[in-house]
Structure formats: structure tokens, C-alpha cells
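FAQ: What does a ligand-bound record look like?

Like this one, built around D-xylulose:
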Amino acid sequence: MMTIGEGAKITLGVDSSTQGVKAVAWDAAAGAVVASAAVNYGRDLPGYGSPDGFLPAEGSVRRADPRMWVEGLELALARLRDSGFPMDRVAAVGGDAQQHATVYLESLDPLVFSRATSPIWMDSSTKDECAALDAKFGSRLQTETGSPAIERFAGPQIMKFAREEPAAYARTRRIHLLSSFLASYLTGSDMPVDTGDGAGMNLLDLGRGCWDEEICEFAAPGLSARLPRCTGRIAAAAAPLSARFAKFGLKPGIPVVPFTGDNPASLVGCFAERPGTAVISLGTSDVFFAAMEKFHTDPGGCGHVFGNPAGGFMSLACFKNGSLARDRVRAELGVDWKFFDETAFAATERGNGGKRAFPYFEEEITPKHAATGIEANFDWPASPAEVKIRAVVEGQIANMRERTRWIGDFAEIKVTGGASRSRGIREAIADIFGAKVAAIDVADSAAVGGARLAAAALV
Ligand code: XUL
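The answer part, i.e. the structure of the complex:
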């Protein structure tokens, strides 16, 4: 634990992710995490039989026991307290959760769930519901809610529940996202869904910042009355922490701000909440996200728009063929990462004389493209490894640039994730986007985002 200055304002950020919970104490003036505690569902709460944070999969169904999320939150707070961190120094609480997971309540206090297991973002069992939403609303879903009908999104999931279990749906008084549920649990009263996470439901009229009554009613009768209100103004919607949390050493009554989704929270945790800076996370998939001033959607129909919890909007585009595709090319060429990240780039010219290649090993979503393997505009078999590597990297980045042009231009791009170590990739991003590129370390970016949002309630 770091030393905490006398007058320092400490806020707590709680990140409830798929695999566990992290609680970080953030000192805004020092710009540093001063203490943290973590819980892993598989290791720490084995009684829930969810080694990876969800119950054994049944086909395309992925669900988790919501009691595990509550117990995980409390255990993380207990661990932070037991680490010796002075919990009474926490001045406000914020947080985030995995997006799209839904929690179904008969009552919040006492806590009674009307659905024993909650669908999470990995569930893709709502093909029929998405088809019905598409048939009814068509492109209006994309242009008004920010995304086309998507299987993991909360709206199709709620629709399926209401159809399959009408009696349990009728008993349900409130349907929360996991984010708004956790904030409600902390305050003991219904907290709003923030427009950052709420945009992952297919139910929110994002431009107007309210539920779309027509889509809600089509998804499930009486749905909008079962949803909490939504808000795009996090600081203004803070509510006092319930006295129940005094047992963890937290001061009752300190402000708790609405929680958001992990992606919107990461935008804030990467200090990229203002337009002009984008973040590219180079992981299994490559993800591009950035703040946006005005609400507008991807004319190509691939990117998402969410509310930006710091105000305004944000966009997110996911490119499925990211690091896994790069690794496959590297393995097929029989070279090591040093060769892939540096040697190949030192041996070739920027722009590669126009030679580009696109690795479609997985079915691509941005743009939609079948898994057909490498597609190159030059004689792939006859070319040396160096040329192939630059062609693949520049091909991926050029595709990303084209597919994110609708969002705007960026003077600065922050890159994170394993592949951000590659000088070749960083230079290709700088060249193709015409931006300054910096690799950033974003351990706990979502939790830090939650804590930074909590700090806004103290201003
Ligand atoms: C975003 C999504 C995932 C989850 C992971 O749409 O489904 O990134 O938020 O926690």
C-alpha cells in the first residue's frame, strides 16, 4: 500500500468483471492507485461451481449466479479493509461491471431474485429474438440505440426470458444491468442505468437518453416499467452509501455514483474521455474506442455507440482478427516475436510498396467477412517473410482506419495490450492514422475509470 497524504481525496473504484472483482482506492491528486484487493470467483468462491466466472455452458447459453456477484463484491471490500487500508478515508464510490449481464429482482431489500441465474455477455442463445427485433425495427436499432440487434445484448436476453418463463417475468419487479444492480446494492435503493452501459441493451434511445418505449414493449410487455431510470449524468445521480457497509469500515452516506460498463469505464481509466484521443487495445481481438462529441452511428453498421460516462458519447469497434491472427501468421512463417515486431519492419519500407494482406482466420465482424484465411493483393507464396509481416500489420491497421473514419480524426492514440510492445505495429498506427502514438500501461483501467467517475461527485 502506498502512503496516503493528509488531505488526499480517495475514491473507490469497483470493477466486477467476468472472472472476479477488483476494488481499487484511487488518489486523484497523486494520479495513483494507493491500495487494491481482488477476488477470483473460481479460486475464492468455489461453491458457485464457476471456475471462469460462469456456470457450466449449455450450448450457446452462458449464465452466472447473481449471488456470486454480491458475495464477490463484499469479499473484495473485506479484503481491502483487512489489508490495513483506512477505509474511512474513502470519500466516494464508483465502479463498473462486465457489460450486458442482467439481474432480475422481486425485491432489492431484502434481496430476492426472480431469476436464479443471469445471462452474461458470453451468451449467444438469442438468435430468434434478434431476428424478431431486426424484422420489426430494421436499421432503426442501429441508428437510434447505437447498435444492431446483438445476441449478448440485454434486450434480446430479457425478451427470451419473458417468452420462456412468463410467470417468473411477471414476478419480476426490476431488471437491472449488473452495473446498476451493484450500485443499487451499495445504496439500498434503485440506481439508474448509465447511458454507457445502457447502450448495450438495444433498448435505449441513445440520442434522447431515455428508454425507447416501443422497442421495450415489443421485447417484453411492461418492460420499461421494470427498468430503472437511465442517466447520462453520473455525478448528478449519486446516492448515499447504505449503513450496511459500515462493517467494511466505509463511512455511511458517502456518495455512490451510478456504475457503468467495463468498456466505458476503461475509456475514463485510460484518460481518453475527451474527443481527439483514441485507445487501441491490441489483444486476442483488436478493439478501438474513443470519445465522440455528437451522437452519430456507423454508416457501415459495424461499430457501436455507447454513452460516455464522462459526458457525450463514445464509439467502440471490435476487429476479431487481432493478435491471434498475427500469431498465426508468425507461426506459419516460423519466426519469433522479435523478428515479427522489429526485424521485419527494419527490412521493409513504410507502405510496403502498396502490398497489403488481410488475415481472416476468424469470421470477421468489422467488416463482416467469412473466415477465408489470408487475402493478399500480391503474390503471397513467392514473397519473403518480412514483406508478408508488414503487409498483414499495415493491412489490419488500414482496415481499422477505414472502419473508424466515421468516428473522427485523432491527434493522439494510446495503445494497450500485449502487441503494443511491437515497434512495427506502433509505427504503422502512427503512419496510417497520422497521429502521435504512445503505449500505455492500463492495469485496472476499468476500476480506475470507476474511481475517477466517483471523484466527479465530490466536485
Ligand atoms: C462488450 C462486451 C465485453 C464485456 C466484457 O460489448 O461484451 O467487452 O463487456 O466484460
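Follow-up question: can I read anything off the structure? Yes, for example: Residues 101 and 120 are 4 Å apart (CA to CA).
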